[in-house]
Structure formats: structure tokens, C-alpha cells
Amino acid sequence: MSENKRLFKKAARYAIAYNKILKMIRDGLYPEGSKLPSEPLLAEQLGISRSTLRQALGLLQEDGILEAKKGIGNFVRKTLNEDNVGHERMANPFYKSCIDPIDQVEIEMEIEPSSEHVERIFNRKTSVVLAIYRYYKQNDVIKGSCFSHVATDFDYINSIDLNNQDEVLHFLENKIYDYGLSSMLEVRIVPATENIKEAYQGNVSEYYQMIAERITDKKGNIITYNKFYIPFERAVFKVIRNN
Predict the structure, then answer these.
(1) So where are the chain's domains?
(2) How far is residue 239 from each of residues 10, 60, 215, measured CA to CA in Å?
(3) Segment 93-110, tens digit of pLDDT
(4) I need a labelling partner for 74 at 20 to 30 A (CA). Which of 35, 58, 110, 137 fits?
(5) Rounded to whole angstroms, how far apart are CA atoms 73 and 50?
């Protein structure tokens, strides 16, 4: 019984520390992107041991609130606005899942003839499809990628100038979600393949979070099939649910 009490008190201390740090972040004492004080100083401020503090910091990191940068310290990773942080609304899932800020997106596009694989994706016959690669970068380093098959037999495609890279990118990143009625996401953890290794140019992780996304239009036709790849240690997948 005494051992159980000690464990409970120990758990209560780091839970209290967790809540105190969270409140300081919510109150703006440590805004997004800022660095927390060193562990000895923060432990002294909170009146707790460093081991208790590490448990609280570990939970804050696990919950996606802090990011530990080796040899530098703990940083507030994102704001705590929970209104639109998950995948409930139709939008590009990459930005909801990758914790790295992206400052550039590059694309490569090819026109491919239909195949048995393509027909299985779209569940119908189509003459040609667009095969498009997207590379999400920060400071010119690839932080994530996407491979898309886009159908060419729906009316909206005619509104795009396929020779204009910026227009194609805007369509894929934004407008496709206006044209689509619904989307289905499937999340898997996959090992790095040779294609992934080649795409990431040496900046390769052992595992990736893959988000497969099918976007369906108002007629019930699949118009786009995306596969987003994010390094496992840089990925998070959050869904907000309410009763």
C-alpha cells in the first residue's frame, strides 16, 4: 500500500508540473517557437526535482506541445489552438501531419497512359492521368513528399493551365478540396523504399508515415489519389472528436 501511495504521489508531481508548464505556454509566457528555460532553472522555478521535470517534459513532447532539440533545449512546437488542428475538415493532410514548417513546394508532372493499376485506383477506365510528384522543403531540404494520380476525365481539370506550374500546384494544394465532396484517409507506417531514398536525396529516415488520400467528387467519382510521405519521427496524426 505504501509503495502504491509513493507511486501515486510521484505521478501527481509530474502531472502538476505538466499542467503548470502547459498553463505558462497557454498564457503566452512561452509563445510558439520559443525556448523553455534550462532544465535546472525550470526545475528550480517549479520547485520540483529534475527527474520529475523530465517526466513532465517527456509527456509534453509526446503530446506534440514541445520539441526537444538535442544539445539545445526544449522548444514550444505549436500553438494550442485546438479549433482546427486535426483532420476533420477536407484540406491537404500534409500540413496537419508534418511538424516541420514548409517554405517551398516543388512539383514534377508527367502525363501517363491508363493502366490496370490506374483503373483500379479510380475504379473506372480513363485514357490518361496526370502523375505528379510534390516535394515539401524547408531551407531547400526535403521534409516530405507526395505522389499523386489525378484523373483527366472530370470537368474541373479543363480550368487549369497544365503548362503553368504555379497554377497546377495551387489546384493540388487547395482547389481540389473545393471541387471534392469528400475524402478518405488511410494512414500506415511504411519502411523507406528505394524510391523514397532517391526522392529524399540522402535525408532518409528508416520509417515513414504514409497518408493515402482518395478525393471523391459530387458524382461519386474518385478524382485524385494522393500518397503523402512524412519521416516517422517528424509526423503526427491528430483527430478532434466531440460527443
Answers:
(1) 2-76, 94-234
(2) 30, 18, 18
(3) 998 899 888 889 999 999
(4) 137
(5) 14
Residue 176: which H helix or E strand, with range? helix 176-179
CA 52 to mean position of chain CA atoms: 30
Secondary structure class of 35 (helix, strand, coil): strand
Longest CA–CA separation in the chain, Å:
73
Q: How far is CA 155 from the centre of its chain?
A: 30
CATH number belonging to domain 94-234: 3.40.1410.10
User: What digits encode the pLDDT tens for the residues 39-89?
Assistant: 999 999 999 999 989 988 988 887 778 989 888 999 998 655 544 456 777
Q: Which residues contact 205 (CB under 8 A, 6 or more apart)?
A: 192, 231, 232, 233, 234
Q: 22: part of which helix (H) or strand (E)?
A: helix 2-26
CA–CA separation, 92 and 155 (whole Å)? 21
- CATH number given to 2-76: 1.10.10.10
Distance CA 166, CA 30 (A): 37
**10 Å Cβ neighbour count for 43?**
20
Write out the E strands in the chain: 66-69, 73-76, 104-113, 128-138, 141-151, 182-191, 207-216, 222-231
Q: What pTM did the predictor assign?
A: 0.67
- pLDDT, tens digit, for every residue of 133-174? 999 998 889 999 999 999 998 888 888 888 888 889 989 998
With 0-12 / 13-18 / 19 or more C-beta atoms within 10 angstroms meaning exposed / middle / buried, residue 219 is: exposed
